[in-house]
Specification:
Distance between the termini of chain A: 62 Å
Helix content of chain A: under 10%
Number of helices of chain B: 3
Distance between the termini of chain B: 41 Å
Largest interface: A-B, 29 and 28 residues
Number of strands of chain A: 10
Strand content of chain B: 35-45%
Order of helices and strands of chain B: EEEEEEHEEEEEHEEHE
Structural class of chain B: mainly beta
Shape of chain B: globular
Oligomer: heterodimer
Order of helices and strands of chain A: EEEEEHEEEEEH
Number of helices of chain A: 2
Helix content of chain B: 10-25%
Largest sheet of chain A: 5 strands, mixed
Structural class of chain A: mainly beta
Chain lengths: 162, 153
C-alpha cells in the first residue's frame, strides 16, 4: 500500500567529471540521455570551456568542459580525447531554441531520488560559478546542484581564442 | 532527395575538415617550396605578384601545422585576396543541402568565422564565412611580418 504521507521526491542525476574533485547533480528533467559520442570536433574561436561539437542521434551537440566553467583556476587539457568518455546529454533553451549540450563524465553516474528539502552543504571556496544553484548533502556526501539553464550566459561572452 | 547542391571546396587543417564557398575562391595551388619574402613585394594576385599566406593552423588552433607540404587556398573577401595555408584539399566540391546544418545557437552566438557545418565521416566540418575570416585575419595579422611568399602565377 502506498503511503499518502510519503515525502515529495526530486529525481536527480548525480555524476562527476574528469579532474574535478566534486560530486555534481542536475534535475533529471534537464537531461535527455547518457551516451558515448563517436567524435568531438574542435571548433576554433570559442572559449576553452567549449570542447567542440559532437553528434547525438544525428543532432549537433555542443560539448562543454564543466570543470573549466566551475573552477576558474582550471586549465584546459588539450591532450584528452573526450570522445572516449560517456557524456551526459542535456537540453537547454537558448534564443527560443532547444540546444543539446554534452558534458564528458566519469563512470559511476546514477539516478537518485531525494526529498525536495535536502540539508544544505557548504559550497567549496573555489566555486564562484553562477552555474551552481546550491550545495546539498545526499547520503552525507556534498553534492553541487547545477542549474544548466544559466549555462548560455556563462558561455556567451565573446572570447576569441586563437 | 534534394537536387540542390552548392559548390564548396573542402580542405583540412590540423586533421579537421573545413569548407569554403566556391564563389569566394580565387585559386588553389600546391605548395612545395616557399620563396623568401622580398621587402618591396606587393601582395596582389591579379598581377601575378607574390602573395603572403596565412598560417591557418596557427590562426585557428594556435598550433603550427605538422605538414611540410600542402596547399594554399586563395580567398576573395572584402575586395582583398587572402591566402590560407592548408594541409590538404579533399576531393569533391559539391555539398548536398541535406549535408549542411546551421551552427548550434550556442556556437553561433560566439560570432566565430563560420556560418554553418557539414557532416564529415570523421566528424563535423565547419563552413567558413569568408568575410568574418577576413576580419579575423586582419585582426591577427595586422602587426605580423611576412615570412614567406608564394608565386601564384
Amino acid at each position: 500500500m502506498t503511503s499518502s504521507n510519503a515525502l515529495p521526491q526530486a529525481r536527480l542525476f548525480r555524476f562527476s567529471v574528469p579532474e574535478l574533485d566534486a560530486a555534481l547533480a542536475i534535475p533529471i528533467d534537464q537531461m535527455v540521455s547518457v551516451a558515448r559520442l563517436s567524435f568531438v570536433t574542435r571548433v576554433p574561436c570559442t572559449p576553452p570551456s567549449i570542447l567542440g561539437l559532437g553528434r547525438w542521434q544525428d543532432a549537433p551537440t555542443v560539448i562543454i568542459d564543466l570543470r573549466l566553467i566551475l573552477d576558474p583556476d582550471a586549465q584546459p587539457d588539450n591532450g584528452r580525447n573526450y570522445a572516449d568518455y560517456h557524456h551526459v546529454i542535456i537540453k537547454i533553451a537558448f534564443e527560443n531554441q532547444i540546444s543539446l549540450v554534452g558534458c564528458p563524465i566519469l563512470a559511476g553516474g546514477q539516478m537518485v531520488s531525494v526529498p525536495l528539502s535536502l540539508p544544505k552543504a557548504e559550497l567549496p571556496v573555489w566555486i564562484t560559478s553562477e552555474a551552481i544553484h546550491q550545495a546539498v548533502l545526499i547520503e552525507d556526501t556534498p553534492v553541487l546542484l547545477l542549474d544548466m539553464m544559466r549555462l548560455p550566459a556563462l558561455l556567451a561572452p565573446l572570447q576569441l581564442v586563437v | 532527395m534534394s537536387e540542390s547542391s552548392a559548390g564548396f571546396l573542402r580542405f583540412e587543417v590540423c586533421g579537421q575538415a573545413f569548407a569554403i564557398s566556391m564563389t569566394d575562391l580565387a585559386g588553389i595551388r600546391q605548395v612545395t617550396e616557399a620563396r623568401a619574402a622580398e621587402p618591396d613585394a606587393t601582395p596582389d594576385i591579379e598581377t601575378h605578384a607574390y602573395v603572403a599566406p596565412v598560417d591557418t593552423a596557427s590562426l585557428l588552433f594556435g598550433t603550427a601545422s605538422s605538414e611540410t607540404d600542402g596547399f594554399i587556398v586563395v580567398v576573395r573577401a572584402q575586395q582583398t585576396m587572402y591566402v590560407l595555408r592548408v594541409d590538404r584539399v579533399r576531393a569533391g566540391t559539391d555539398m548536398q543541402a541535406e549535408e549542411r546544418r546551421d551552427l548550434p545557437p550556442l556556437i553561433e552566438a560566439l560570432d566565430g568565422p563560420f556560418n554553418g557545418m557539414f557532416y564529415d565521416p570523421e566528424g563535423w566540418g565547419l563552413i567558413i564565412d569568408s568575410n568574418r575570416m577576413a576580419d579575423l585575419i586582419r585582426q591577427q595579422y595586422a602587426e605580423r611580418a611576412t615570412e614567406h611568399l608564394y608565386d601564384l602565377q
